[in-house]
């Protein structure tokens, strides 16, 4: 058993705890553990200056991310203790367990006036603002905004392929304002190519975030046709490196530019379609399992599989996958929301909602806990639509239509493990939190 804290460290610890915000959080946590804050304080002030590791873990893993980050400035030993992968995993487990009561949403939007990407964490029930953050100038796009590949375990994966040829990939944790620019990929194709990304986590290791990159060589005079199979590689946050994997047998490709993905049940999912010369085959859900790193396929019902892939969009809903089918006409547009009620069971696909796209609604972007659905509008606004009453509620959030992104969110310490940031530098960052 290791103890943390000497006299100076303990005094510094109480400097943080005596702040009103940290004091409230610390009282709540010690009370939850069956400890009296006054007893803990008096015993340590009386001479026992050490915190046993298991006690420290029990306390700190239950504190909000903002408070934990501040405690990294207590000392170097506390910094390295808190920034361990094992501690981040323990804190994440507690955050996920408590997130049902304190559900959060991440909202990303691009403001045309300020020309900045806004990342806001909202209470999923009231939609009140919990905190907001902006990307560092090192990461922010010079023109436009990044594609949000996905969001998982408190980290957002961004891909700069919409308005730039850089094709850089960045992991960004808005809770702790830390980002990581991934190293250049190892697969470099000589001919024109397109890439599709996937983002998720190894289900056997909750802190090992992974980015999958699929690279297709463009083939023939039709630029949307690609040579199969593609090449693939995967980046692991744990190793910090790209590693090539087999894509043999992959006989589908994802729609260019407007592709979407979602991570559910330990696997990444896209809308995939097959082609042979100029003939198109039915669409399906392309799947990549993070555990065994194998590609697969989930069949769609006929009502979806016969649609052009550009009309379909995939989203996560209630621990399963859902697909939106759009029908756009000059004077009337609509969409259908289909959901796989039992993940992996093709027969469980059902049409959950038919929605007339009224009041400028254009694109479905996410779901609320109460069953309402988020839409972006042609007026660059985020609205909430109730399928039961068909009422559209304006929420007061604005951003260009394609920039609006909403996802369930849980605060985490992932990316804090970058030890190139020393304690003194981190302290400067803490002051801005």
Automatic annotation (TrEMBL):
Segments forming domain F-box: 51-91
SUPFAM superfamilies for the chain: F-box domain
Pfam hit, one: F-box
Protein's name in the database: F-box domain-containing protein
Gene source species: Cuscuta epithymum
């Amino acid at each position: 058993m290791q103890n943390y804290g000497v006299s100076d460290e303990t005094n510094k610890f109480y400097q943080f705890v005596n702040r009103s915000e940290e004091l409230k959080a610390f009282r709540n946590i010690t009370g939850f553990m069956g400890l009296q804050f006054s007893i803990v304080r008096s015993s340590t002030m009386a001479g026992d200056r050490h915190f046993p590791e298991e006690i420290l873990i029990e306390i700190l893993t239950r504190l909000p991310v903002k408070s934990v980050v501040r405690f990294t400035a207590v000392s170097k030993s506390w910094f390295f203790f808190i920034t361990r992968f094992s501690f981040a995993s323990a804190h994440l487990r507690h955050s996920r367990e408590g997130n049902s009561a304190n559900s959060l949403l991440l909202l990303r939007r691009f403001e045309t006036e300020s020309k900045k990407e806004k990342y806001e964490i909202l209470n999923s029930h009231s939609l009140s603002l919990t905190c907001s953050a902006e990307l560092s100038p090192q990461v922010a796009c010079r023109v436009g905004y990044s594609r949000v590949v996905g969001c998982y375990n408190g980290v957002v994966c961004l891909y700069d392929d919409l308005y730039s040829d850089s094709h850089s990939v960045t992991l960004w944790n808005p809770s702790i304002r830390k980002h990581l620019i991934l190293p250049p990929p190892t697969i470099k194709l000589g001919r024109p190519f397109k890439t599709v990304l996937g983002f998720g986590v190894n289900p056997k290791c909750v802190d090992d975030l992974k980015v999958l990159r699929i690279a297709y060589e463009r083939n023939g005079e039709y630029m949307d046709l690609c040579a199969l199979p593609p090449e693939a590689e995967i980046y692991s946050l744990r190793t910090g490196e790209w590693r090539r994997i087999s894509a043999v047998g992959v006989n589908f490709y994802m729609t260019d530019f407007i592709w979407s993905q979602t991570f559910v049940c330990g696997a990444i999912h896209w809308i995939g379609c097959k082609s042979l010369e100029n003939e198109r085959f039915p669409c399906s859900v392309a799947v990549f399992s993070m555990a065994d790193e194998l590609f697969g396929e989930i069949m769609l019902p006929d009502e979806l599989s016969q649609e052009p892939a550009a009309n379909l969009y995939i989203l996560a809903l209630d621990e399963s996958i859902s697909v939106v089918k759009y029908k756009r006409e000059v004077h009337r547009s609509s969409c259908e929301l289909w959901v796989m009620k039992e993940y992996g069971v093709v027969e469980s696909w059902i049409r959950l909602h038919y929605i007339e796209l009224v009041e400028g609604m254009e694109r479905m972007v996410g779901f609320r806990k109460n069953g309402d659905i988020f839409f972006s509008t042609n007026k660059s606004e985020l609205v909430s639509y109730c399928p039961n009453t068909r009422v559209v509620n304006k929420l007061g959030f604005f951003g260009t239509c394609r920039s609006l992104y909403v996802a369930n969110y849980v605060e985490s310490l992932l990316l804090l493990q970058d030890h190139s940031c020393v304690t003194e530098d981190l302290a400067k960052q803490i002051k801005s939190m």
